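Q: What changes when nicotinamide-adenine-dinucleotide is included in the input?
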Amino acid sequence: MILNELKKKAQDGSLRIGVVGLGYVGLPLAVQFAAKGISVTGIDITQGKVDRINAGDNYILDVDSKVLAECVKKGTLKATSDYSVIRDLDAISICVPTPLRKTGDPDISFILAARDEILKYAHPGLLIVLESTTYPGTTDELMVPAFEEKGLKVGKDVFIAFSPERVDPGNEKYGTHNTPKVIGGSTPACMEVAQAVYGLVIEHIVPVTSTQAAEMVKLLENTFRSINIGLVNELAIMCKILGVDVWEVIRAASTKPFGFMPFYPGPGLGGHCIPIDPIYLSWKLKTLKYRARFIELADDINTKMPDYVTERVAEALNERGKAVKGKKILVMGVAYKRDIDDVRESPSLDIIELFIKRGASVEYYDPFIAEVETANHRHKSVPFTPAQLKTYDAAVICTDHRVVDYDMLADNVPLVFDARNATAKLGQRDNIVKL
Ligand SMILES: NC(=O)c1ccc[n+]([C@@H]2O[C@H](COP(=O)([O-])OP(=O)(O)OC[C@H]3O[C@@H](n4cnc5c(N)ncnc54)[C@H](O)[C@@H]3O)[C@@H](O)[C@H]2O)c1
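A: The predicted holo structure follows.
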C-alpha cells in the first residue's frame, strides 16, 4: 500500500524530494528534479550555501545559473539547514562528502551524521537513497539496521537504495539527466520505488540486484581510472628513461580501433573521486584480510608524481646552469583538471609546496581560481601578461585549461615544463620540456 502510494506520487509528479548535501553532486541533482517542476528541498549544514540557493545564486559551474534562479523563483527549489522538513518529504538523496581521514582510512562520519538527522524525522513512505561514494556494504550495514531499529521495516515502511553519482565536472555532453544511473535496492520493493523516482529525470536507469553491487560499480569505475592513470604515469617515467616521447606513443596507440583506450600522464591525481574512492575499496578488503595490490601500486605511483615533476623541473633548471633555490617559478593551473574551478586533492598544491621547500619563490596562474590555500601558504593568482611572465625562471604546466595562451607563455618564460602536453601545437622549442 505504502509502495503503491509512493509510486503513484512519482507518476503524477506530486512527489516532494529532499537532497542532503548541496555540493558538486547534490546541487545538479536538486536542480534536475526542480526543473521538471518537482518540489525539491535541499538540506545543507553550510548556511552560506543555503542562503545563496534561496537567493537564486548558483555556485556550481556545471549548474545552469538561469535554470537554478527560475526554479527558486517558481518555488520548486528551496534550501534549508533544518532537517525537520523531512517530515513532509517523500524521498531523500544523500550526497554528503566521503573523504579520507589523515590516517588514510575512509571518513564516513558525514554519512552517519546525515543518517542520524534523517532518522529523527523518518516516517513510513520515505525513500532514502545514498549517493555518496563509499565501500561495499555501507548501505546494508549502516543504513538499513538503523531504520529497522527505529521500527521502520525496510522494503515495507521505508525504502533504501544506493545509487552512485557519476557526474564528470566540466563534461559538456553528459550531465545528470543523460548519464545512465545505476541503482541497487535493499529489497526489490526499494528498487521499484527508487527506479520510479529517478526515472522522472534520468533517461536510462541500470538496475543491479543489491546495494553492494551498486556500491562496487562506482568503485570499479574509479579504480579503473586510477589504475590506468597509474600505468600511464609509470609509462611516462619509463619513456623518459628510454628517451621516447610518451605523448607520441599514446597518440599512435590510440589509432588502434579496438582493445585500447587512451589515458594520459600528468602531475598526479586530483578531485574528490579518483584519488580517494579506490582507497575505500582497499580499506574494506584489508578488514577482510585481502590486499588490493593493483590499487596500492597505482596509488603509490600516482601520489609520487608531484615529486617526480618537481625533480624533473629541478633537473631541467640544472641543465641550464640554475638551481631551484632562489628562482621564481610559476605553477600554471591549480584546478585538478582542465576548465573547472575545483582544487580538491589537486597535485598542483603539492607541487607549489615542494618548490617552496626547495627554496624557490612560487606563484600561480589559474583563470578559474582566484585564490588558493596550500598546506602552509595562501596564494593569489597572478596576472597573465608578457611583462609578468618575463619575471619567472620557469613555468610548470600542471593543468591545461583551454582558454590559456600557451604560445604567450612559451614566448616569455625561459623554461616551460609541460606535464599535460598543453603545448603540443607549438611544436619543438628549446625552452619546452615535456613530462
Ligand atoms: N565531485 C564529483 O565529481 C563527484 C562525482 C561522483 C561522486 N561524488 C561523490 O559524491 C559525494 C559528494 O561529493 P561532492 O563533490 O558533491 O561534495 P561537496 O563537498 O561538493 O558537497 C557536499 C555538501 O555536503 C554538505 N554536508 C556535509 N555534511 C552534511 C550533513 N551532515 N548534512 C547536510 N549537508 C552536509 C556540505 O556542506 C557540502 O555542501 C562524495 O561521496 C563524492 O565521492 C563526487
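Observations recorded in class: The CA atoms of residues 148 and 284 lie 24 Å apart.
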